[in-house]
Write a structure and sequence with these properties.
The complex is a heterotrimer of chains A (327), B (745) and C (328). Chain B is α/β, with parallel strands linked by helices and 745 residues long. Chain B contains 26 helices and 26 strands. Chain C has 328 residues and is mostly helical. The chains are: A mainly alpha (327), B alpha/beta (745), C mainly alpha (328). The structure holds adenosine-5'-triphosphate (ATP), iron/sulfur cluster (2 copies) and magnesium ion.
Chain lengths: 327, 745, 328
């Protein structure tokens, strides 16, 4: 197993290196922070701009290849991912933002999975009954709404609630109210900030799990081994819950492992709409600010998360499926 | 009463119970399981499928009822209806009584008290019938827990070990913790049997328990079933399409056709004195492994009726050679035949179908075809295929994720043989013995192969360029095992047959003409060329596959299990066709089959393979009548023959275990791990088997014959690779069911 | 005691067979009939066609276009003059919606069709060559899957002073980027499907008959993955429309002055309370578009599925690809 992981790990490191490098070249050749700098008022001279850029390691006069070598050396030797045009250090900024993103998504991921899988099982058990049709139709609906629009609609709903009640119950943007005393008030404030994004992400997310779990379970309810279990003297429902359910988890576990990173890396929409300064919104800001290093760092982050997800998927499969366990 | 039956028509059928009673069958109260007028209907999109139509039987304690019939005749549905395991869309009527208690109509919950307890079942496909994510032990213990909530954990485990030991799984204690995928098919089926007998059932239903298994493993599993029945005293319902399987173990037989029993009676009556054309056909359709008969098989043409339309006359009439107008007036009832009240048949002509009627006459079996090559001695015929020391080794890896090379599988290990014109050469052996790999190596025809393949004078070593290859392809064609998978579902028959012809560069009109010829040749209607494969039956599809292989006039046709996917009745037609084509077109065949009866019927020479090597090769009648290698002897003895008396008294060699993993392949004789002779040898002689590899040597005529003959006798066409061909068979592996053992009805 | 009435068993058998299938129907006809029997699917097709026609000819029903400002009607609700009202810049919403719908459909169709085409070529090539070629191509594929598409979209569409950007309208640029990142999943699916097809006996039969590989791919592989391709086209179109809306919504896809449904919806969010029609009209159109496509997809899948009962179970086998589709 270890050797296998090592092998996969090396492949992925290589792949991450390639994607990140490609990303860097794309960014370095299309993002020109110097141009933005020149639109400042008072307008700096081109020499001034070039000088300030050079100080931050963003020399616009160097060729992409020279800058790439410089950038890579810094990472390899000092684990220094460079600086932004505004002078901020990528490493520090990144640390803060990863934490914010994680806080935003952790609760939603857990809720999404639990609700999705539970509803999948529930609707499979009631195939073609009223409840099944409602639940499954909802999931299909979630499929045809772009995520940001769904988030926005939830936000609208929260605003409407606030207006109807007449006071601010939910915060629809931001992560906390600054300057609150630690304690009860801060806790309530946190809940008020978390509620809307968490609900929104969960509402959008569970549909695909519900459909998947439902389908895999239905694929298995008529399996031969369920019949064997019934022939032993289990009722149909017992046989399904003890045998079919466990087997239907195998593919679901795999897709879960794959989508956790997808939620993380695909979090720009949520962060953008709910104005949480996480990695996702940073990446988009980085581009509008022509920030080569930040853009590349977020891209690398996305690749790493993906690779982790892929390895996690292998792990998950091994965990639930004895057939692929390595002796 | 009897006059009515003689007239062949029962206007108003009596109630089934009454009918059986009148017929003198057991009073229902003695029976452990009694089924009356069982009817099952499925509501499908196309209409109501009446899958089971009026099944009646009584099963006495400790007895065995065999249910036979071709695919779709309602055997499985009947058994599932008894178990209450049919989907809710099925409508079940009639009566199923277990020890007098009615089971039909019980709720799922109420049925659970009987299922797995007094009523147990073993299913056909052992590979998919165990839950992959639980250990074997968990699954056996579950069966115990359900019906014995009070049992302690230790007791249950001990019982599980005992059960595994009973079904013959070595080191059962350790094996409890194994997962199903770590077991071979035969072992999984043993586990299924262990689960079924866990609670000492009164009735055990086995639905084709050995169909998916190799003959040697089938023999083991049947033996286990036999033991299980002895241990538990359960009555058994044995469902099968193989008349050989039930011949030895059943007391009574029920033949089903189109959802109905068409003939029932004691096993001897059915086998020796069938009174219904369908039963006669079935018996005549199976080739026998134990006789060197050279008569054609009985083909039952056509397909079973569609169960959506209620039959107006005898449901067998469209395929029955004896059908007359009278047969179409109402379905004949199951009625006693003249020779005994316990023997019933549903045929208006059963009275005239006594024991002296020859089934070959009834079914108008074609005459035995004679090939023009048969008269020429083998040595004088040209060689169409020659293999010289062909090898194919695969690296063996373990682990699904982490592939680790742990050894080499010698799938084919030094094969040498040749095939002459007009000859059918067969390769037999268990699955995993390397038969298919051999075929693929021949079809591959590649320069870099290990060993030489010569096809029609073209050697893979010398001329493997494109030209030579295409010349070779015209000499050699292949027919596949699965007739459905071998035909592109999107091609019409015309396109299927045109492909090789276009490829050979033929013109359109010539192609058309050739296709019409081919259709006629394989017995298909020429105007069916525009149909798609899914509009044909399995047998017809296989005929299309054969026609495609013959399109370019090859000399040699490679047949990979050409009939194993077909029903017995259909199989006979295809075998006859192959026989006829060989004779008429002077073809040679290379046939791979696991069914030794089929092999004996159509081949001239045979090679027995074990772990990539030929262990015995020679003229088919010599090898089958006088097998020298212990493996050949075991294989032959594993095959059940459709002859109840013979089956009951026959001794059989039951090999232990499965084909060994190629890694454990011993240094000396491959077969030593399972060899029944080796096991009985004294230590000193065993040494030889373990260290030396036995060479393939010809059988020499006995010294007595040598001295009698004036000239030195030529070597016989039979060679084998064993040091002790005359050795005693180990007693543990020799099973004789004593006649007393069998409670004759 | 031989044939009493000399019925030729073969002939009887053939007749019995004929009863079952006396009309030989082509496969395409069967699929077409099955599709037409599925009311939802037909409704979806009708809606989609109606929207497409609307997006091309709808412009002729009004005198306004997407650029002209009506200084007398600024931020007006729907009226006889402006069927769907005007924006707060005074531009006719109807005209903009027609234009936006057309751009969205165009993006969807181009991306859907071309990406499936690319995927088919790429996937079949991998399956056909196998070995080293397959390994390298698979590596490239996975590397592309790893790249967060959105970032690249953003970089490509927002890069400063690029020649590319100046010369191309933003919708075309978006199409290119979406194309680059939309075909990999399908390619992988096609690869595994073709590989299993290569193992099928009928392909082996052709190989053993000496049929050249090129012909095998064209005559056996492509037709047999055809249904998958059609399904993937509808799915790809939906995915592209959704992606356009999502990206434009947060301001990194299509940029003004180009119009698309995403731009319209995104631009209206700030005034959803004051000018609600600006938001809901394009959103409804988008729903009709993606919804109708989803309905069609369902019907098609059912029509292609040989084992389908084509009634009641319309929602079978839906997800495997969707799970992933949804996450992005
Ligand atoms: N769930 C079902 N729905 C509809 N029809 C069914 C169903 N199960 C079985 N049938 C039909 O009932 C008939 C009898 O099937 P059954 O499985 O009992 O045959 P069988 O004799 O066991 O055949 P085999 O030898 O292939 O196992 C067939 O025509 C089959 O198509
Ligand atoms: S009743 Fe007639 S058709 Fe039926 S089996 Fe008897 S002879 Fe044949
Ligand atoms: S050589 Fe020995 S082990 Fe091999 S088959 Fe003969 S007796 Fe058995
Ligand atoms: Mg069956």
């Amino acid at each position: 197993m270890l050797r296998y992981l090592a092998k996969r790990g090396i492949t992925y490191v290589f792949m991450i290196f390639l994607t990140t490098s490609a990303g860097y070249f794309l960014a370095v050749s299309s993002l020109k922070p110097a141009l933005l700098e020149q639109e400042r008022i008072p307008r700096p001279t081109p020499e001034q701009v070039a000088n300030s850029m050079r100080l931050k390691g963003l020399d616009p006069d160097l060729s992409p290849w020279e800058r790439y070598v410089e950038w890579l050396t810094a990472i390899v030797t000092r684990w220094d991912w460079g600086r932004s045009p505004n002078g901020a250090f990528i490493n520090a900024e990144f640390g803060d933002r990863v934490w914010i993103s994680t806080r935003l998504f952790l609760a939603s991921i857990v809720l999404t999975l639990v609700i999705g899988v539970a509803l999948g099982v529930y609707s499979a058990a009631r195939q073609y009954k009223f409840q099944d049709r409602v639940i499954t139709s909802y999931s299909y609906l979630a499929y045809i709404v772009p995520a940001p629009i769904a988030y926005f609609l939830v936000q609208l709903g929260a605003i409407n609630i606030n207006e109807t009640v007449g006071e601010r119950i939910f915060f629809v943007t931001g992560i906390s109210t600054p300057g609150l005393e630690p304690g009860w008030a801060q806790f309530i404030d946190m809940l008020a900030h978390y509620a809307v994004p968490t609900v929104a992400i969960t509402l959008v997310g569970w549909g695909s799990y519900q459909i998947a779990q439902r389908q895999y379970l239905l694929d298995n309810v008529n399996a031969d081994f369920v019949r064997t279990a019934r022939a032993k003297g289990l009722t149909r429902n017992q046989a399904i819950s003890r045998h079919a359910l466990r087997v239907s988890f195998i593919p679901v576990a795999q897709s879960i492992a794959f989508t956790i990173p997808a939620i993380f890396a695909g979090g720009f929409f949520a962060e953008k709409i709910f104005a949480w300064p996480g990695v996702g919104s940073w990446s988009i800001d980085a581009i509008s600010l022509q920030d080569v290093n930040a853009a590349t760092a977020t891209l690398a982050y996305g690749s790493v998360i993906f690779a982790l997800g892929a390895i996690l998927a292998d792990f998950a499969t091994t965990l639930v499926d004895p057939r692929v366990r390595v002796q | 009463m009897s006059s009515e039956i003689a007239a062949g028509r029962v206007e108003q059928p009596q109630s089934p119970a009454e009918r059986l009673h009148v017929a003198g069958l057991h009073a229902p109260s003695d029976a452990i399981l009694s089924v009356r007028d069982l009817n099952v209907r499925f509501n499908t999109e196309n209409g109501i499928v009446h899958a089971v139509r009026g099944v009646d039987f009584d099963l006495m304690p400790g007895k065995t009822l065999g249910i036979v019939g071709e695919s779709g005749s309602g055997k499985s549905v009947t058994s599932l209806a008894i178990m209450g395991l049919l989907p809710t869309t099925a409508e079940v009527t009639g009566s199923v009584r277990l020890k007098g208690k009615e089971l039909l109509g019980l709720s799922d919950k109420a049925m659970c008290e009987y299922r797995g307890n007094e009523l147990a079942m073993v299913f056909q496909d052992p590979l998919s019938s165990l839950t992959p994510v639980y250990t074997v032990g968990t699954q056996i213990i579950e069966a115990l827990t359900i019906h014995n909530p009070g049992m302690s954990k230790q007791t249950k485990e001990a019982r599980a070990v005992e059960l595994l030991a009973m079904v013959g799984i070595p080191s059962p204690k350790e094996r409890l913790r194994a997962f199903p995928h770590e077991f071979s098919g035969g072992m999984r089926q043993r586990v299924m049997i262990a689960i079924a007998i866990a609670n000492n059932p009164r009735v055990l239903i086995a639905d084709e328990p050995t169909t998916a298994l190799d003959v040697t493993i089938q023999a083991q599993v049947l033996e286990v079933l036999h033991t299980a029945q002895e241990e538990t005293g359960a009555a058994v319902v044995m469902i099968t399409h193989d008349l050989g399987v039930v011949a030895g173990m059943a007391d009574d037989i029920m033949v089903m056709y189109a959802g109905r029993p068409v003939e029932t009676g004691a096993v001897d009556d059915i086998y020796y004195n069938p009174r219904m054309p369908y039963t006669m056909g079935l018996l005549g359709a199976v080739p026998r492994v134990d006789v060197a008969e050279k008569s054609s098989l009985v083909p039952i043409e056509g397909m079973p009726p569609n169960l959506i339309h209620p039959p107006t006359g005898c449901s067998f009439a469209p395929r029955c050679p004896l059908a007359s107008d009278a047969c179409l007036e109402g379905e004949p009832a199951l009625a006693p035949v003249p020779d005994g009240p316990l023997h019933l048949a549903a045929c208006i002509k059963s009275g005239s179908l006594g024991g002296d009627v020859d089934v070959l006459d009834v079914f108008a079996a074609p005459p035995v075809p004679v090939s023009r090559f048969d008269a020429i001695p083998r040595e004088e015929r040209a060689t169409v295929l020659q293999l010289k020391d062909v090898r194919k080794h695969f690296p063996l890896t373990r682990g699904a994720l982490l592939k680790k090379r742990i050894g080499t599988v010698k799938a084919v290990d030094g094969l040498t043989f040749d095939i002459r014109e007009g000859e059918c050469f067969s390769i037999v052996g268990e699955s995993g013995s390397g038969k298919t790999t051999t075929l693929l190596e021949i079809m591959e025809f590649h320069k870099d192969q290990d060993g030489e393949v010569v096809i029609g004078g073209i050697s893979n070593k010398k001329a493997a360029d494109a030209r030579a290859k295409s010349a070779m392809r015209r000499e050699l064609q292949m027919v596949f095992q699965d007739p459905t998978g071998a035909l592109d579902p999107r091609f019409t028959v015309y396109e299927v047959l045109a492909e090789p012809l276009q490829n050979a560069g033929m013109e359109k009109p010539a192609i058309r003409k050739r296709i019409m010829e081919l259709m006629k040749l394989v017995g298909l209607q020429p105007d069916h060329v525009n149909r798609f494969p899914n509009q044909f039956s399995g047998g017809q599809r296989q005929r299309i596959g054969i026609a495609r292989a013959l399109a370019v006039n090859p000399k040699l046709v490679v047949l990979d299990e050409p009939v194993s996917a077909l029903d017995v009745s259909v199989q006979a037609g295809v075998i006859n066709l192959l026989d006829k084509l060989r004779a008429e077109l002077g073809l040679s065949y290379l046939l791979v089959a696991h069914d030794l009866s089929v092999v004996r019927h159509i081949s001239n020479r045979v090679a027995v393979m074990y772990l990539g090597k030929i262990v015995e090769i020679g003229e088919v009648d010599r090898v089958f009548d006088n097998p020298r290698h212990p493996y050949t002897r075991a294989l032959l003895s594993a095959i059940p023959v459709p002859d109840p008396q013979l089956e009951r008294t026959r001794e059989r060699i039951i090999l232990q275990g499965d084909l060994p993993s190629p890694l454990d392949a011993p240094k000396g004789c491959n077969f030593a791990t399972r060899c029944p002779v080796f096991a009985a040898l004294p230590k000193t002689k065993q040494e030889k088997c373990l260290t030396l590899e036995p060479p393939l040597l010809p059988v020499t005529p006995s010294p007595a014959a040598q001295t009698l003959a004036a000239d030195p006798l030529p070597a016989l066409d039979q060679r084998f690779a064993c040091f002790f061909p005359d050795g005693e068979i180990d007693e543990d592996m020799l099973v004789v069911h004593e006649a007393a053992d069998h409670h004759a009805p | 005691m031989t044939n009493l009435n000399a019925v030729d068993p073969a002939a009887v058998a053939q007749d019995a067979h004929l009863e079952g299938a006396d009309v030989v129907i082509g496969k395409n006809t069967i699929i077409f009939r099955r599709f037409m029997r599925n009311k939802t699917a037909v409704a979806g097709l009708a809606i989609f066609l109606a929207l497409t026609v609307f997006s091309f000819v709808g412009g002729y029903f009004t005198q306004w276009d997407k650029e002209t400002i009506d200084p007398f009607n600024i931020g007006m609700p729907p009226s006889a003059e402006h069927y769907l009202g005007t924006s707060q810049a005074g531009i006719d919403l109807y005209a903009m919606t027609v234009e936006g719908t057309r751009i969205s459909i165009l993006i969807g169709l181009i991306v859907g069709l071309v990406s499936v085409l690319v995927a088919a070529v790429y996937g079949c090539t991998m399956a056909y060559f196998g070995g080293k070629v397959d390994k390298v191509m698979l590596f490239i594929l996975e590397a592309l899957i790893m790249m967060p598409a959105l970032l690249v979209v953003a970089v490509a569409t927002s890069g400063g002073g690029e020649g590319l950007k100046r010369d191309l309208p933003s919708w075309l640029l978006l199409i290119i980027v979406l194309l680059v990142f939309s075909w990999m999943g399908t390619a992988r699916l096609i690869r595994s499907l073709s590989m299993s097809l290569m193992q099928r006996d009928f392909v082996k039969a052709s190989q053993y008959m000496g049929v050249p590989a090129r012909r095998i791919v064209w005559r056996h592989l492509v037709p047999n993955i055809g249904s998958l391709l059609v399904l993937d086209i509808t799915r790809g179109v939906t995915g592209a429309i959704l992606a356009e809306v999502a990206f434009s919504f947060i301001g990194i896809g299509i940029k003004v002055p180009d119009v698309s449904l995403g731009v319209l919806i995104g631009g209206a969010t700030s005034q959803v309370q004051t000018f609600p029609w600006m938001f809901w009209v394009p959103l409804t159109v988008m729903f009709l578009l993606t919804g109708s496509l989803a309905m069609m997809n369902d019907g098609l899948r059912d029509a292609f599925d040989p084992s389908s009962s084509s009634s009641g179970s319309a929602k079978k086998r839906a997800l495997k690809t969707r799970v992933k589709g949804n996450a992005s």
